[in-house]
Amino acid sequence: MIEGCLSQVVLLTLHFTARPGHLLNYKNQRLLAGIVFFVLAAMLIAVIGLLRQARWSQRFLSYLDMQLLGSSHRLFFIQGVLLVAGVFLFECFLLTYLAFPLLTRPLFFWASLTSFQAWLVLRIAYKDTYREQPSLAASIRSKWNGLLPVQRKVFVILAVMGVFYFLAFIPTNMLPDRNGQFTLLGDEQVIYPDVVKIFAPQPNFRSAVQNILGTWPWWYGYPYLPISASVLIIPRLIFGTQFAANIDLNIGLMRQFVSVFPMVLAIMLAVYLVTRFKSVLISTSIFVFFLLVPGIVKISIHFWHPDSIIILLILLTIYFIQKDDLHFGRYFYLAALTCGLATGLKLFGLFFVLAIAGYLVAGVLLKKLTFKKSVLAGAGFILVMIITIVITGPSLMAPYITKVALASWLDQQQKILVGPSGVDTTGLYNTNLPNWLKYFGFHYMKGYSLQ
Length: 451
What we know:
Blueprint: H1 2-13, H2 29-51, H3 54-69, H4 75-95, H5 105-125, H6 127-132, H7 136-146, H8 149-168, H9 170-174, H10 186-196, H11 205-213, H12 224-231, H13 233-239, H14 247-275, H15 280-291, H16 294-298, H17 307-324, H18 330-346, H19 353-365, H20 371-392, H21 399-418, H22 433-443
Helix pairs in contact: 1-2, 1-5, 4-5, 8-14, 8-15, 14-15, 14-17, 17-18, 18-20, 19-20
């Protein structure tokens, strides 16, 4: 609350233009700030007065223990909510440099800081509870030891094969061809400048926020930008501001870690979903078969693209739904998270609409939950998806950026539905079943296999 009062003092010193933030008129902003300041001050005095009384402070601490450590075990859930809220509010603070009212800047910063501080206070206050929980390393060891010997053997074999598969694409993805030329596909040529420019030095904080959040052209969803850019952090640190000139290295790294690596993980997960790693021969055979499918090999060569990540997210969604097994617990909402991320990247998560609806209906028919709870679970699933989309694409909260993203999406949908404008000499975008089967035959199986 002290920080809240200070934020109001900062607010009173700010100078406003006629319509900063493009949303509100601030004719009476100082009056509003003054009212909020006195409300926070009064609340601070009241809280301090109550906590100074031993009876009230003891009653408050007992109530807090009962709520956090009682039968509902809300501590870890609330800790998670505080972290998510802190990140969301900090993103809102950043968006005050793009579209949100300037009036809200100190408020969002204060609220974000308060969320993180509350998380830290609970983490310290309940340190003994955390010590009782197994560490991440201990949890991994427990999961590993819980596997059957054959499952551990299959996992090691597939992991080693996956490493060799990953390494096998380095020469084609990172090195020039026999003519000394480094090949860039059309998508790579278009998107590469948009990714590397977020590392460019900016004259001030406002420009940095605008560069990171406000300039993505929405070829794909915003999460594709930080995913791709994270691969280039080390080259940026090594080569400095001139790192973008190392096109072969940067593109090669993104091809390997954005396309090849997620595909290997996705295929391993697909094999697990089918075999549960209970047969060495069957698991390795399916793994090798998928690795050598022409379409999968094709998108691993000279192809920096989000499709591999989307396939991994889709399989993770299926895995979490299987893991949930009609309990509608944390795995159900983890499925919502991965489904939301797939939607934020390329809208593919929307294909789960009927699947999740059917899953909820199955829960009702099998008497795993009531109709009312199924509606609440469905609403919770949608809410987690929306939160994931917003937090991983914060600039969508800026109205003018949302319009740009929507226009780009509608244009792509138009091309998918009716094909691109102009003459398509390759026939690649023809929208008919015979054309689709032709390319399906090129990359996956011949047409006679479908007869």
